[in-house]
Write a structure and sequence with these properties.
Blueprint (H helix, E strand, L loop, with lengths): L2 H13 L10 H26 L14 H4 L17 H22 L8
Amino acid sequence: MFEQSFKNIDDILHRDAGCATELDYIEQTSWILFLKYLDDLEQIKKTEAELAEEKHKFIIDQDYRWEVWAEPKTSDGKLDHNKAFTGDDLKDFVEHKLFPYLKKFKTESDGSDTIE
């Protein structure tokens, strides 16, 4: 199911200037997969909380959630190409805002046994 998606990502990254092998971009691919997984986990936890009539507290602040920077939607649920980061805007957001934001979890988490 995901094989073609990964191949497409691999092809795009491999063509990027300066990438000689998959090892040149495996870290970025891993981060992307992790952030998407974390978003999916958050959505599951939110649904579970709603079903239990409880409030869910997101781990990731609103500005850094997947649906804001990677896959923003229009009111009818389609990808909003005007809000989605691409190219240099995406690179700048990830390098200068997202990664520094995520790095703070290392020092601010309550312990090593939390998702944070």
